[in-house]
Amino acid sequence: MGAGTSGSTGADVVRGAGVVVTGAGGGIGAALARRFAAEGARVVVNDLDPVRTKAVAEEIGALAVPGDASAVVDEAREALGGTVDIWCANAGLSSPGDAFADEDVWAAAWDVNVMAHVRAARALLPEWLERGSGRFVSTVSAAGLLTMIGAAPYSVSKHGAYAFAEWLSLTYRHRGLKVHAICPQGVRTDMLTSAGSAGELVLAPTAIEPEAVADALLDAVAADRFLVLPHPEVAGYYRNRATDPERWLSTMNHLQQAWETGTRQPVDGHP
Questions:
Q1: Strands 63-64 and 177-182, how do they pair?
Q2: Quick one: which of 24, 70, 71, 14 has its CA closest to 44?
Q3: Do 135 and 89 touch, CB atoms closer than 8 A?
Q4: Which of 18, 6, 12 is nearest to 63 (CA)?
Q5: CA atoms of 192 and 214, how far apart (whole Å)
Q6: By three-state DSSP, how is residue 9 classified?
Q7: What confidence category does residue 252 fall into, taking pLDDT thresholds of 50, 70 and 90?
Q8: In this predicted model, what pLDDT tens digit does every residue of 168-187 receive, in sequence order?
Q9: Cis amide bond preceding 271, omega within 30
């Protein structure tokens, strides 16, 4: 599955490709699977929930491979006839909590949000590097570029997911590996609902549909663009964080205080 070229579309790049989407029983993962299938890819749907996995796969004419996203590379590869062209590391945990969250919460967030990506890359890279092509898609979050109030395990692990995607790209891009890091803010999924009052304050006002995330990814695939921002304003927030961290941290602390007190005051430069 080759790189995007001038004038090509994301559909041109993915047509006929063997694609695996983890965490695809609903939300962003299901939207990605539907879009890849609609564009002519051969799709494997993966999710821990076998019922949801089968339902999405049957809906779009895909293959169902339920199970732990960390351990399905070989089975998914076999289902696709021996070759995976695009791996979408989309399975994730929302993991709310502060510094006092249980060790098990921190460990689970790190295992699913980071190590599942590492394990998939370990299994996929030898073949991809040998043939000189492959595409790794990491569903990160704007929290991986910025942060999220009330969700320390989630924010920290998503920074890890972004860092690993970045490392993959800078290390292997000259050997044909394409990497995309998807970093949306609020998306109308079960994960947004699970974010509770913090999500209602920070994410819900600008939340988008999962299909918009799939659109943004296909655009990035066509351009071979690493950073995928379904909310374009995140680029400005990320710039503010890098160029004036004190002001950015102060702004985020105002959001934290607004959340703690239950007020909904406008915050300049959020987030």
A1: unpaired
A2: 24
A3: no
A4: 18
A5: 17
A6: coil
A7: very high
A8: 999 999 999 999 999 999 99
A9: yes
Separation of alpha carbons 157 and 96, rounded Å: 11
Length of the chain: 271
Contacts of 54 (CB under 8 A, 6+ apart): 64, 66
Determine the number of helices (DSSP H) and then strands (DSSP E) in the chain: 12, 7
Closest CA to 139 of 174, 179, 167, 111: 179
Regarding pTM above 0.90, the answer is yes
Q: Each residue of 149-165: pLDDT tens digit?
A: 999 999 999 999 999 99
For residues 244, 247, 249, 253, the Cα torsion angle rounded to the nearest 10 degrees is -170
Mean pLDDT of 15-30: 97
Determine the pLDDT at residue 8: 65
Closest of 19, 4, 25 to residue 210, by C-alpha: 25
Q: Above 50 in pLDDT, residue 266?
A: no
Q: Answer whether 97's CB lies under 8 Å from 151's CB.
A: yes
Residue 148 to residue 95: CA distance in whole angstroms: 11
222, HSE (Cβ side, Cα atoms, 13 Å)? 14
